């Protein structure tokens, strides 16, 4: 009981310390902290917009890749694969989630960064270069690279949870569609996916929360430049990454408090996204089992 | 017309499922690529020195990760001292008494704790330990990792205790055994294998955590004495070495990644064999 209560205390402690240790920044910048574009520790001007932007863009790129990949894999595992194969493949996908993020970062630095610099980046800017998102010289490090790594890291979340949601769809739902003469895919598309929709959306939000807070892998490949550029091939910065890089260098109180405020924002955003995810999974009627 | 329609529908059916199969192959091959690549590069960096020596000064090649390995072990020991009791007793509370509103709130807080980005846990431990003591320490890192252990420990404890049938509890209570004795001597022994597995998986998960250590345990190129000095750890060493410009450090980063990954996968695979029907959970 006492130990159980200490969990409540720790969570309250989180909110308390984050608020208390960011009070100078909260007081000085107010809401403009969120849309200030200048991050200048020397002049003590702190605006977090470049980091917020980078976090949102890398997560969006990650989701754009991971949602089709993860959901496709989940459909394959739930609908097509024989149970034994499905079980062992699911286990492999879960292992993917167990690999520490710093290892993803390591592979990112030595494999994905050169790949983006020499293959993906030049191809994109040659084919889609008329579009501002894909202009500029690919450095290798940048928002796109971070998004690709994030995608690999969050696919397991989408796949594992979506697969369970799909397997939980009642047989009657499937049989009704098949009895109407639908093909297997039409059954999936018109009867199973709509039934499982809120659960699938829940899994996506769960993955989004992970992507927003992911630190190490992103820090190692995002380029760490606090600027807002239109192109995905340019280096950027994320909230988690600036914490990882600058926290030990915070020389003044205001600097430290500005960084802690970024932590506070991160805390708030992931709290919200996780909340939505839980609500969606709960709506599927599996709030208990499907907590991932 | 109908023939063409039917053909089209069949083609869509095959095409769409073919695509999902392709996606599944891509997803799984990411894992095999990681295993193969890290295995290949890591294996070349592993030798006896890696386990037994300290890091060499910048510019000299050779040396090892002995201090980082010991550092990680110390951090994990400290983390278990915080994470295991809170997680264990919290889980017991939730499974045996957690039906009321308090249970709801504690479950909610646990989920919330699980969702907090690891770097924010680092900030918390920093303000809690590093700021007042004015130095980075094993203690601060251990506390950060301990907090990260709590939610998974609570959840797996609760899950495994719930698997114990209520008839077992009732049988004991019917014999006049007190509730706390029932839990301690009947329910927990029945679930002990699952409970230990849960803790082991939890340890494997936090063993690779890097972000919460960056400004709590920090790093150290020599031995860290006691609990109040900054210490090296394998994950932070991987980070530092990976972004450094030295070839030899890259080699050691790969070797450390191999050791860490082997540890994590061995625990995950091993527990899977012990408890084949349990979901190992994606985090």
Protein topology:
The complex is a heterodimer of chains A (292) and B (283).
Chain A: H1 2-20, H2 23-29, H3 32-35, E1 39-40, E2 45-46, H4 49-80, H5 83-98, H6 101-128, H7 143-167, H8 171-179, H9 184-195, H10 197-213, H11 216-221, H12 239-246, H13 253-283
Antiparallel strand pairs in A: 1-2
Helix pairs in contact in A: 2-13, 4-7, 4-10, 4-12, 5-7, 6-7, 7-10, 8-9, 10-13, 12-13
Chain B: H1 2-45, H2 48-52, H3 66-97, H4 101-115, H5 118-133, H6 138-163, H7 166-174, H8 179-207, H9 234-242, H10 247-274
Helix pairs in contact in B: 1-10, 3-6, 3-8, 4-6, 5-6, 6-8, 7-8, 8-10, 9-10
Q: Mean of residue pLDDT of chain B?
A: 89
* CATH topology-level name of the largest domain in chain B: MetI-like fold
Radius of gyration of chain B: 24 Å
How many beta strands in the DSSP annotation of chain B? 0
Strand elements of chain A, count = 2
Number of domains of chain A: 1
Q: What is the assigned CATH homologous superfamily of chain A?
A: MetI-like
Quaternary organisation of the protein chains:
heterodimer
How are the strands ordered across the major sheet of chain A?
1-2
Estimate what percentage of residues of chain B fall within beta strands.
Answer: under 5%
Helix content of chain B: over 70%
Short summary:
Chain A is built from 13 helices and two strands, in the order αααββαααααααααα. By secondary structure, chain A is mainly alpha-helical. Residues 287-292 of chain A have low confidence and may be disordered.
